[in-house]
Amino acid sequence: MLLTPLGKDVVSRAHDILVEVDDLAAMCAAAAEPFSGKMRLGVIPTIAPFCF
Question: What is the number of alpha carbons within 13 Å of residue 15 lying toward its C-beta?
Fold first, then answer.
């Protein structure tokens, strides 16, 4: 299967968002004292299937 140009743009942006979320989680983990425990991120149902 091939992606359309729009599909390639969506995948690229989604990848960038996931990298930023991972960086944010790592930053919070590094500062464990003020931010302890799990971090949860809510996503609306129409977007959630594309995040995993």
Answer: 6
Task: Give the tokens for residue 43.
Answer: 């996503």
Q: Which two tokens stand for residue 10?
A: 């969506």
- The sign of the torsion formed by the CA atoms of 16, 17, 23, 27 equals positive
Span 6-50, pLDDT tens digits: 999 999 999 999 999 999 988 877 777 665 677 777 767 776 677
Report if residue 31 sits inside a domain: yes
Helical residues (DSSP H) of 1-52, grouped into ranges: 5-30
Amino acid in the structure at residue 43: V
Task: Please give the tally of structural domains in the chain.
Answer: 1
